[in-house]
Structures are given as structure tokens and as C-alpha cells.
Amino acid sequence: MLFVKARHPTPSLFLTLRRRLATHANTPKFTIPVIDFSSFRKATSPAEKRATADRIVGAFKESGFIYLSGHGIPKSVIKGAFDHSAKFFQLPVETKDTLAWESPRSNRGYVRIGRERVTQSADAAEIAKMRESAPDYKESMEIGREADAEWKNMWPKESEAPEFRGTMLGFFQTCHELQAQVMRSIALGLDLEETFFDNKVDQQCHNLRLLSYPSVKRSLLNAEGTGRAGAHSDYGTLTLLFQDQVGGLEVQNPHTKVYHPATPIPDTIVINVGDLLSRWSNDVLRSTLHRVVSPPPTPSDPDTVPGRQSIAFFSNPNFDAEIACLPTCKGTEGEKYEVVTTEEYIVGRLRMTYDSK
């Protein structure tokens, strides 16, 4: 019988293993907490409000994402918005193309499949190349504030999409009111006056985006870099995301860079921090990378990626608001960013994201 002498780990190997284990143990577990916002909306004392505010800000410091329950938006209102969104995307392509998105400053209108390529790149040539080789496989309809003297929303005819305009304007206003309340909770959690952001988000310079991810053969999304929506951060203060039950949203753990599914939870809204709020807070609050990928295959039809719907409300500060480090967020490092206006930042990002045609 042949005996092989066992090799014992060297002290240096033990040290390496211990360091790896220690690093793993010290890495925070990635979670997207479910936070009941009714405890803030219906609070009867400042302490109740502060407790919810601290939970929200704590989550935004760690992962940048939360699920918000108890938000106060009726199921029927959300269902109505989804129903009218679905009917809009069922319109003929020729009809939708008459409403085509025109410019990054207006950021309104219909965006056909392949026209947008979200990414963190700031290189226009690189983005154009990605858009050509691996476009985002989705279409969208962008809606801004209706009371804008310069930039107008682009609506289908009432005969083509009955009640679409009224439904979306009402939903826009509902989302604005909710984001204003969440911004109040963030102010409290950052040791600011509760109303600190009120006059900085009151002009409703937001964007309501209706999204349709058509059903497609899985093989078409297998090319390198191709997906529903590439990895990116959002541009404004907060994003309110209403998603169906198909799934596909993934959020990156900022510590490990691993992506985790943001599995749909009924009766919740996914809310995440955008770039401008992160800059405002001197990166105290995280603007976290996320993406939309193909959901796992289903046994009944493993070769087809099912269609998916979502509605994103991108809340922004007033376009002329100066985004400078908040007084409670300077820390020991001082201010990390130069002052920028909302318009400068968002228009610049959009200009590189979209195909001009």
C-alpha cells in the first residue's frame, strides 16, 4: 500500500485564510429592507417620525435601496396606471413614433427599442458603440410636468388612448406628493429641519417613465453586454419604482460588487437614491448601481423571456437648485464635489445616454 505524506498548511497560508475569513465576516450582509411608511405618515409624535426616518436613512447609507410599504397609494391607482401604460405600448409603432423623444432638455416622448443605452460611462463614443452592439431591449414613454411654459408633454390622441393623459397626470401628482414626504423623512434622518427640501423640490421637475420590456427569445439577449437595461445609477434625488411580478431588477452590493435580485414584493414600491441626492449628502447616502436582466427560465417556455412592465418616477430637485454639500454631511473629509445645478447634471447625463435620431 502506498502512503502519501499529508502536506500541512504553512503559517503564511493560515494567515491568508484568516484574513479572507475576517474580510468576509466584516462585510455587511446585503439586504433591501421593507420599511412601513405609514408610521411616518400617521405619526403622532416627533419621536415616531424620527424612528422611521432613521430606518430609511440607515438603509440609504448602506445599500441605497428600500422597499416602501404603507405608502398610501391605493392599489387601484397603481393598477390604473399599469393598465393604461400597457394599452399605450400596444398602439401601432407608427402612432408611437409620432411622439418620438426629441431632446435631453425636454426629456419627453416615446423612446423606441434600442434608442437608449444606460451606462455609467461618460464617453459618448463608447456609449454609441454599446448602443450599436448591445442596446437596452426596452421601450419607454417619458412624461414631465404638464405646467411647463417651454417644454410640452407629447400625448397620443384621446381617441387613440382614452383617459391615458388624465391617468398619467394624476399618477405624476400622486408620486410627487409621496416623494416630497420621503424627502422630509430623509431631512430628519440627516439632522436637518423636516421641511429643508420642501422649496427645493416643489417645482415638480420630475420624470414619469412608463417602461415596456417586450417578450423576446432568450437567445437575442445572450450577446455580451446585452440585457433589458445595463448597469447604471439614476440621476436625480429619488426613484420610485413600481414593478410587476416578472422580476429582473438586480442591485449591486456596493461592498462586494455582486448583484442581488430585488424580487418584487406585493404592495411595496422600490425606492432608491439617485446621483444628485448622493452628491447633496457628500456620498453619505448611496447612489447604487442596478440593472435589469432576464428572469430565470420557466419550465413551460425556457427559450422565451416573458414581457415585463414597470413604471419609474424619477424625482428631481428644481432645475435651478444648486446641489452643494448639505451642512450636516461635510464630515472630516470636507466637500467632495463642486456645486452643480440640477439642469446641468441631468441634461448632461441624458445627452450621452440617448441616440439623437
Q: Which class best fits the helix and strand makeup?
A: alpha+beta
Order of helices and strands: HEHHEHHEHEHEEEEEEEHEEEEEH
CATH topology call: Jelly Rolls
Main sheet attributes: strand count, strand direction, barrel closure: 8 strands, mixed
* Physical arrangement of strands within the biggest beta sheet: 1-2-11-8-14-5-4-3
The number of domains: 1
Oligomeric state, counting identical vs distinct chains: single chain
CATH architecture descriptor name: Sandwich
GO molecular function: metal ion binding; oxidoreductase activity
Family: Belongs to the iron/ascorbate-dependent oxidoreductase family.
InterPro entries: DIOX_N (IPR026992), IPNS-like_FE2OG_OXY (IPR044861), IPNS-like_sf (IPR027443), Iron_ascorbate_oxido_reductase (IPR050231), Oxoglu/Fe-dep_dioxygenase_dom (IPR005123)
Protein name: Fe2OG dioxygenase domain-containing protein
Task: Describe the structure using short key phrases.
disordered N terminus, 8-stranded mixed β-sheet, 4-stranded antiparallel β-sheet, alpha+beta, 357 residues, Jelly Rolls, globular
Architecture overview:
This protein is an alpha+beta fold and 357 residues long. The protein has one domain (60-353): B-lactam Antibiotic, Isopenicillin N Synthase, Chain (Jelly Rolls, Sandwich). It is built from 9 helices and 16 strands. It has helices at 11-26, 38-41, 46-62, 75-89, 93-97, 124-133, 164-189, 275-280, 342-353, and strands at 34-36, 65-69, 109-111, 139-143, 207-213, 216-217, 229-232, 238-243, 249-252, 259-261, 269-273, 290-292, 304-305, 308-315, 322-323, 340-341. The strands form 4 sheets. The protein has an 8-stranded mixed β-sheet. A 4-stranded antiparallel β-sheet has the order 7-12-9-10, with no helix packed on it. The protein is globular, with a radius of gyration of 22 Å. The protein starts with 10 loop residues before the first helix and ends with a helix. Residues 1-7, 20-25, 117-122 and 126-134 have low confidence and may be disordered.
